Amino acid sequence: MSRFYIGVDIGGTEVKTALVDENDKAVFAQNIPTESEKGYVHTINMIANQIKGLLDENNVSISMVNSIGIGIPGLTDGKSKIYKAPNISWVDIDISTEMDRHFPNTKVFIANDASVAALAEHHFGAIKGAKNAVMITLGTGVGGGVIINDKLYSGTNGIASEIGHLIVGENFYNCNCGNNGCLETYCSATAIIKYAQRLFVDSPCSKIIEMTDSKPENITAKLIFDAYKEKDLMAKIIVKRFVTYLSIGIINLMNVYDPEVFVIGGGVSKAYDLFIDELEKEVDERLTFKNAPRGKIVKAKLGNDAGAIGAAMLGLYI
Amino acid sequence: MSRFYIGVDIGGTEVKTALVDENDKAVFAQNIPTESEKGYVHTINMIANQIKGLLDENNVSISMVNSIGIGIPGLTDGKSKIYKAPNISWVDIDISTEMDRHFPNTKVFIANDASVAALAEHHFGAIKGAKNAVMITLGTGVGGGVIINDKLYSGTNGIASEIGHLIVGENFYNCNCGNNGCLETYCSATAIIKYAQRLFVDSPCSKIIEMTDSKPENITAKLIFDAYKEKDLMAKIIVKRFVTYLSIGIINLMNVYDPEVFVIGGGVSKAYDLFIDELEKEVDERLTFKNAPRGKIVKAKLGNDAGAIGAAMLGLYI
What we know:
2 copies of one chain form a homodimer.
Chain A: E1 4-10, E2 14-21, E3 26-28, E4 32-33, H1 40-57, E5 65-72, E6 75-76, E7 81-85, E8 90-94, H2 95-102, E9 107-112, H3 113-124, E10 133-138, E11 142-148, E12 151-152, H4 184-187, H5 189-200, H6 207-211, H7 221-229, H8 233-256, E13 261-265, H9 272-286, E14 296-299, H10 306-317
Parallel strand pairs in A: 1-5, 5-9, 10-13, 13-14
Antiparallel strand pairs in A: 1-2, 2-3, 2-4, 6-7, 7-8, 10-11, 11-12
């Protein structure tokens, strides 16, 4: 009997669900709103209905499903518990128990969104075949997904791969976690915007002033990279700082995980072609051991569907 | 037929060799000088003789030996090559090929000294039974040994666990590796001495001035901790800085490896009881996720023999 894998990607605003067969063919349900403000039981109930509908439409019975994998925008223990998912305001909840009420005989796995993105890239995308690989997602925050010996590595308590919170320096503002100098305060889209806003008043001649209608609140990471493309000096300073700290982050990850390959995804990776040459250069300059080989750096291949498909892959990778 | 494991601990000045039986009973050869100035072929020849003598004395034939494990004070590819071992001036040499000339039918494994110390602690010592564990050795430098899923993790190119080169801030002097802000420039014995020497001239009332006969070159890490015990203000400042950065290092390692337990060894760990309370406090203050459990911190149990015994364990852990 053929086997199926279900993947659920819970985002801040929408939930995407995929049914993946053993030949890696995926079909998707219609997205539903997360509606996290109505509480997690409501969201889980809707997800359960979405899954049941998707199974019915495809004539698959739940007994043919190997496992349900769930990707969430936050921290989990890798088993059943969500410690914290700020964007959807879930704190200390037990998602697996709730899922068990709907699917009592089906295994449920949970992981953070960067980890499931890493699984999708490992199964179908840019890091396929790599025994050890690290995904770095540069978005609102900085996330990580780590493959060790062809399996997802999430550590003892599920917090391994929280690479956005590597402390790498001293910064002018604190991270949401309370610490100062976290990688995500240098390399996320948010970090790029905050640093640009800090430079704003002192850079009256920058194109960025015009592009934002002189309003610092209009700054986006995309706008900074657009100005960078046009050789704007302020944008150069901002991108230089982003690249410097991303290279430090990669050096640190090399010295702990030593992967075959780093894959860069997330919204900021849309500007990959603009920063990769500088990044390679700075990584090489900072190599701890100049005569040892190093992991290569590649761009993520998969788009929006990676979350749901990667979540489905949890059944194969845990 | 019973099986044996040979372990060789190559230090800066001496080589210690152990023969471990399958009941974990170890016997040692008489230490020999490393004599690295005579070249690595000379040293390997002497080690081979040492091993042969140890086998003869114990009536063990080489065919009963499962493997020979070698711990070196430097960076290896985990297979056969030593990239760099500064204390013994070995660069880009192939140690396994040389060993094969003496023991053509015996497997040879190599790893850095902190990794083999971690294996000894995992097999006999403070981290026994931990599925995921991280050893931090605080000595002349800062080294790391990482156990993931009960195996030694050394990454794709052997440089995983080079935790002394995690970049964690901006420091007043550069690391030997060329980078600025490496963990070992804050938390090694060398780092403690360098920072003390920097404070020396501005602290005329410190006990340390008297203890060193007013000579900054007489400062040792032990002396600083002795002064700390006597509540000397300068020593307090130095130990505070050491603890702060060690806590940052541990937070970073939590966010990537998330081990069940951290074990602290190396010369500086002799002062463990003096700094552990402050360290626990600072680690808790810096926890990225306050509601997630964290790995505990313990002191290494094994002494000088851990290197050779741990090297012997490479045959079990790779």
